[in-house]
Amino acid sequence: MASKNLLRETLQGLKMSKKGKIKFDPYWAERGEHILEGYKGDLGLSPNCAGVMDRLSSRPLKKSSFLCSSSGGCSPDSSAGSVSDINTINTTFSAATPLKNKRRHLAVSDEMNSETPEADVSKVSSPVSLPAISLLSSKAMQTAGCIDRIEKKHQEKAKSALRLRQEKLVVAVADAASEQLKRFEELMELKQKQEDQSMRDMRDRETKESMVRYEKLKEEQRHRMKNLNLSQKVAEPEQQQLWEAELERQTQVDGRERLQNLHTIQVEILQLNQLLRPSSQTKTDLPPTSISTYSTRGNQLCSQVSVVVRKTAEGQFPSVEDMTMAEQALHEMRALIQLMQEEVVKAHEWKKEEQEQEEKRRKMAALQAQQDVQKKAAQSAQQKAMKKGLQNTAEDSTLKWYKELQQTAAQCAQAIEQLSTTKDAQTKKLKQELQKAATIPVSQISSNSGSQLREIFDKIDKLLSGGAVVSGGKSVSVSQHPQGLDFVSYKLAEKFVKQGEEEVASHHEAAFPIAVVASGIWELHPRVGDLILACLHKKCPYAVPHYPPMKDGTPVEEYQKILGYRVGESGVEDQDSFLKRMSGMIRLYAAIIQMRWPYISKQGSLPHGLNHGWRWLAQMLNMEPLADITATLLLDFLEVCGNALMKQYQGQFCKLMLYLKEEYLPRIEAVTSSGQMGSVSRLQEFLETALQNQQISPPKGQLSSRFWRT
């Protein structure tokens, strides 16, 4: 039993030795090691073997009986020899203990440190290499043989496992390589698709100007010729080969670029050819022969480019000559499109001009018919007036006053003609500065605050009084030129009337701040007031009131100018615009006759006060009414000035209003067509409200005493 335990401990020690612990490593090839690298280490036994040997050394009798039991008997001599043999075995195994063993640090002999694992195994397991083993008993020999067989069996098993692992590894590597190749092919296919998509996207981009590309191609050709000449001078074959490879690469790059440009040109030509197809607009603007010519030529140009594109479908790159031809076709196509568009524009303009001429002729015919109707109405009204006492023109005194004012304005305009038409640079600059100094303050008049209005008034008054004012960062005065005062007065009067024509016509409340400044200037500078009236009567003769008669031989357009219409290149302005301007100027006039500048002494009457408003209204009611214009102006005048006239004249004004409603309004209705009854209805409603309430509401926008404190 002890021998079996000893055998088991021996086998366990061998199993725990360095060689017994050898394991197969599947990654030996990756580290670059030998497959039997583990066998090259120092031979040694497990530390457990040392303990077994110690016990063998300390119990010789048991070892002797163990050895002798295999032979059947022993003697003292043989016992001694057995002990020595056991000591020899102990020494041999001790020599095989590793250097790292903490109990035995004996050196391993040079014979045990062989280079190959096979030699190590043979030295340990072979009885020939260990002479001491030959002295053992048959049981020891059998144990050594078992150890040798087990070790060989393990070696064969390890080699078989190694070969199996290698075969599996080779199969795995082959599968991985096949899978990796498949993935690479899929990646290349995806990359090819992306490149194809990129090529298709690049075809849609804008190309450079064809002449620039042509010059670039010529420059590249010169560069290639230069490189070719240099290559002929190169002696070494290696440099020649490199140059040829670079030339081939450059040729491929240039070819692909030309192919891309060719596709871009083809797409653009096809798109332009679509524009040449007859559409609804071109069919109406261009004759069929012209459309057919453009379409045929466009198809020919598309065919030329298609011939070049078909060559590239065979795997060839387009040549420089092909690109030149394609670019010329593109140029011609663009020119063709531009020519057709110009022809369409010209045809459209001609058609529009024909329509405008037709519209103008139609308006002129309608206006002529309207004037004929008005003329007949005026004649009939004249006949009735002869019976009932109404006039067709203003009173002689009013006409005389009107002509005197026009003569005054004409003299002033003649006096400033030298300054207005000067060619001297310095005088022209002075004229511009004076005009700005006169007109800009009038444009700034508003109902924002009384203090601002007073500053504007003081600036205009100072300029007319000969003082220096700042305009545009420069000081200017009317005393700098002999006609300076007349020029400023005339331009100032024109500007006041223009504000009524434009600003008051759009915003009725603006009449009062403009009127109060004009009234104050009029009171301090009466000449300016006369010029304001003259300009107002010239643009709006109904402010006199005066209905200029049409003289024989006077053109229709000239007569319309006299009546106040604007006549331009596009013809006579429409009736709504005309009535709007007349309304604005009458409202300004009605505001002027009742307004007074609050910072001037109120002793005495206004230079043009409410008495002139009564005169104007009486004159209007004594004249035969005109369609549309009479009702509109009467309503505007009464809305602005009616409250002041009623306060001034009270009962007399109420009688005048009653006469207007009962006697004059039916006359207006008699000469007004059904499409122009809007102003008549508004006037009738205003009169009924005023007579019913026995008062007229104050006008909107009138300046109060509180305004002057702001």
Automatic annotation (TrEMBL):
Biological processes annotated in GO: poly(A)+ mRNA export from nucleus; protein transport
Signal sequence residues: none
Coiled coil: 147-231
Main localization (coarse): cytoplasm
GO molecular function, one term: translation initiation factor binding
Comp. bias (Basic and acidic residues): 352-361
Pfam families per record: GLE1
Keyword Kinase: no
Subcellular locations according to the entry: Cytoplasm; Nucleus, Nuclear pore complex
Ranges annotated as biased composition (Low complexity): 365-382
Cellular component, GO annotation: cytoplasm; nuclear pore cytoplasmic filaments
InterPro entries according to UniProt: GLE1, GLE1-like_sf
Region (Disordered) location: 352-382
Keywords: Coiled coil, Cytoplasm, mRNA transport, Nuclear pore complex, Nucleus, Protein transport, Translocation, Transport
Role according to the record: Required for the export of mRNAs containing poly(A) tails from the nucleus into the cytoplasm. May be involved in the terminal step of the mRNA transport through the nuclear pore complex (NPC).
Family indicated by similarity: Belongs to the GLE1 family.
Descriptive protein name: mRNA export factor GLE1
Native organism: Parambassis ranga (Indian glassy fish)
Gene: LOC114447983
